[in-house]
Design goal:
alpha/beta; two-stranded antiparallel sheet; globular; binds S-adenosyl-L-homocysteine
C-alpha cells in the first residue's frame, strides 16, 4: 500500500510513510471488508459513512506538515483510522464525530489498539472544540460548502487546516488554509476529491425528527 499507492503518487514525508506503514488498517474496517482493507479505494464503515482511500489519508496528513509537539483537531472521526495515523506524528489528537455510535466504537478501538494520545467526543465539528484550542493543525474529513468560521478561529497562528470544500455540481476541492504568524488567512486548492458531506445543525435536527416520528408510528 505504502509503496504502490503513496510513494509512487508523490507522498515523500518519511514520517508520514512510516506512520501509514505502522497503523493496521484492517483493524479499522468492518470484518466483511477485511480482505480489501489495503485496497486503493475508500470502504464503507456503516451508517452511510466511509473510511478514506489510503492515498487521501497520506496526502492530507502530509499537507498538514506536522511536528512532534503539535496538537491536532480532527473533524469526522469515522473509524478512527486517520486519528491513529495522526497520533503517531504529534503529541495530542482531539477528534469529533457527530454519530454517537461511530464515536464510541472508534474511541474503544483506538484505546484497545494502544493509541493513548487520542481523545474522541460526540459533537458537531462545525463548532470545533474551543476548550483545547488553539490547534497547530486541523483536518476535516467531510466536505463543507464553506470552511466553518469556528475552525478558522481555533487554528493557531502559523497553523494549517486541510479540508474538502464543496463547490457544488458534485465538485469538491481539497483545500489547505494557512494562518500566518500575523493572523492573515490564505487558501490553496490541491486536488478534486469526493468526501461524505459535513452535516450541519439543521441536517442533524431533521434526522432526529425523522427518527422520532418513525419511533411513534
Ligand atoms: N476520518 C475518518 C473518515 C471519516 S468519514 C476515518 O479515518 O475513518 C466522515 C465522518 O464525518 C463520518 O463518520 C461522519 O459521521 C462525520 N461527520 C459528518 N458531519 C459531521 C459533523 N458536523 N461533525 C462531526 N463529524 C461529522
Amino acid at each position: 500500500m505504502v509503496e504502490e499507492q503513496l510513494r509512487t503518487r508523490g507522498i515523500t514525508s518519511q514520517s508520514v510513510l512510516e506512520a501509514m506503514r505502522k497503523v493496521p488498517r484492517h483493524c479499522f474496517v468492518p470484518s466483511a471488508f477485511r480482505d480489501e482493507a489495503y485496497g486503493d479505494h475508500p470502504l464503507p464503515i456503516g451508517l452511510g459513512q466511509t473510511i478514506s482511500q489510503p492515498y487521501i489519508v497520506g496526502l492530507m496528513t502530509e499537507l498538514l506538515q506536522l511536528k512532534p509537539d503539535d496538537t491536532v483537531l480532527e473533524i469526522g472521526t469515522g473509524s478512527g483510522y486517520q486519528a491513529a495515523v495522526l497520533s503517531l506524528l504529534v503529541k495530542k489528537v482531539y477528534s469529533i464525530e457527530i454519530l454517537p455510535q461511530l464515536a464510541s466504537q472508534a474511541s474503544r478501538r483506538l484505546d484497545t489498539l494502544g493509541y493513548k494520545n487520542v481523545t474522541v467526543k460526540t459533537g458537531d465539528g462545525n463548532e470545533g472544540w474551543s476548550e483545547h484550542a488553539p490547534y497547530n493543525a486541523i483536518i476535516v474529513t467531510a466536505a463543507a460548502p464553506r470552511i466553518p468560521p469556528a475552525l478558522i478561529e481555533q487554528l493557531a497562528r502559523g497553523g494549517r487546516m486541510c479540508i474538502p470544500v464543496d463547490k457544488g455540481a458534485f465538485v469538491q476541492q481539497l483545500t489547505v488554509l494557512t494562518k500566518g504568524l500575523d493572523g492573515s488567512i490564505s487558501e490553496r486548492p490541491v486536488i478534486p476529491v469526493a468526501f461524505v458531506p459535513l452535516k450541519e445543525a439543521h441536517d442533524i435536527k431533521k434526522e432526529r425528527n425523522i427518527q422520532d416520528s418513525e419511533k411513534h408510528q
